[in-house]
Amino acid sequence: MSRRTFVTGLFAAVGAVPAAVPGVAAGAAAGKPGRGVVLRARPATVSLGGRTVSTWAYNDLLPGPLIEAVAGGTVRARLVNDLPEPTTVHWHGIRIDPRMDGAPGYTQPPTKPGGTFDYVFTVPDPGTYFYHSHVGMQNDRALYGPLIVTDPREPLGYDQEFTVVLDDWLDGVDGTPDDALRKLNASTEHDDSLRSHVLGGVTGEMRYPYYLVNGRTADAPATFVSRPGRRVRFRVINAAADTAFRVALGGHRMTVTHTDGFPCAPVTVDTFLIGMGERYDFVTTLFPGAFPLMALAEGKAGRAFAVVRTSRRAAAPSPDAEVPQLNRRMLAYQDLDARRSDYLRPPSRTVTVTLGMRPSGNEWTLNDRLASDPYRLRVERGETIRIVLHNQSPMWHPMHLHGHTFQVRVNDRRGPRKDTVNLKPHERLNIDVHADNPGEWMFHCHNLYHQEQGMMGVLGYGDPPPHRPGMSHSGTGKPSADRTDKRRQDPTRKGHH
Predict the structure, then answer these.
(1) Counting Cβ atoms within 10 Å, is residue 97 exposed (0-12), middle (13-18) or buried (19+)?
(2) 487/323 Cα distance (integer angstroms)
(3) Model confidence, pTM
(4) What is the DSSP string of 166-221?
């Protein structure tokens, strides 16, 4: 038995829980929303705790509503677009019908202002997932929310669970995400002080004014309430645009049990680094008191912060509290191993995908191609291929594949199942992909700024289609990375990073 708790900015009272949306039985007629959730995307005013900002949100919530389903069941969600521009919903990490993937220009046309779209799809795998807009910079607003797929035969024993959504925030504080992208595109000057040895150098494109846990700033934190001695499962989602977080729970060790939704052999650590788009589940037995749940913005001198409380009388920890666990044993991919039943068969061939950067410093490439003329990796249904990711760029990249999971091969025999993987500068990493879901699937960096500056390609089955719906990831009819220089150039940056 377990009990789920999700605290949002709207439900600020300790222990308050918004209604979950259960999955509908599999086999229901597609295309009809029936029982499910309505996601109304619209301009909204939301509270970050100590500050109120204007943004775009689903149902006026930050994060959006928690959606819950049962593995093998069906999610039904009607998108209502009350925004001034087209939008979609992408269901991050789900092995989904491509028509439901929400990737404009690749799998569906964007939904126009005033329009609706019914997302109806089966969720085959239990785990921690999330949903977000996949048009332009919209994901750096409040257009995201958690999707939890429960296992009807859950083998993991625990008493209670919490969903933790991390984010970096600037919308309505320091202009908009679109303003930030325009500034990056207009200059070759970047902040090289954003550095971390853990990520191999520069960690991001900008500092954010706030870092959030479940929509709350550190000075008005979310609080998770439990009791001493309870074994608690934390589901941690990084929904940020440009920030990796180093996560620890003060006074506790954590046993990591799942990577991007898939179970792994349990490994006990003090902290872990979570890139944009990644998810980790961990369990721990809580001590008496009130403890800081700390998520350092890696290399950015900022922090997201929440409180885990098991005693009413315990003094609340400070957002500036020292958390020694942050500097102790950190999780590495080498520590992780999937269940043997989730191992993929040996690959039949190997393909190298090179991550690069053009001399402008604002154009990020896959095999030296931009999203406006994307690299396409052709696969055939039923094969397993090894993709050698070779990062020749001067920054780290969290690479995400739609419609599939892959096995990260930390050696030839083992490794975790994931859909998003961090790749440091000048690093090579092998991922094995089983081609079992035909379609045209985005494969891109989940740093939203790098994605919009070109680092987006396609994993496609068989011959390429004659055209793609929408023809544009931005939803505007123009390429998301609008560049006039299509020459193939060496991926080096002069005087940057």
Answers:
(1) middle
(2) 49
(3) 0.90
(4) EEEE-TTTSS-HHHHHHHHHT-S---TT-EETTTTEE--S---SEEEETTB-TTS-
Per-residue pLDDT for the chain (497 aa), expressed as one digit of tens each? Answer: 444 554 433 222 222 223 332 222 222 223 344 478 999 999 999 999 989 999 999 999 999 999 999 999 999 999 999 999 999 999 999 999 999 999 998 888 999 999 999 999 999 999 999 999 999 999 999 999 999 999 999 999 999 999 999 999 999 998 999 999 999 999 877 778 899 999 999 999 999 999 999 999 999 999 999 999 999 999 999 999 999 999 999 999 999 999 999 999 999 999 999 999 999 999 999 999 999 999 999 999 999 999 999 999 999 999 999 999 999 999 999 999 999 999 999 999 999 999 999 988 889 999 999 999 999 999 999 999 999 999 999 999 999 999 999 999 987 778 999 999 999 999 999 999 999 999 999 999 999 999 999 999 999 999 998 865 444 555 543 444 443 333 333 333 333 33
Count other Cβ atoms within 10 Å, centred on residue 202.
20
Amino acid letter at 157?
G
Helical residues (DSSP H) of 365-461, grouped into ranges: 448-452
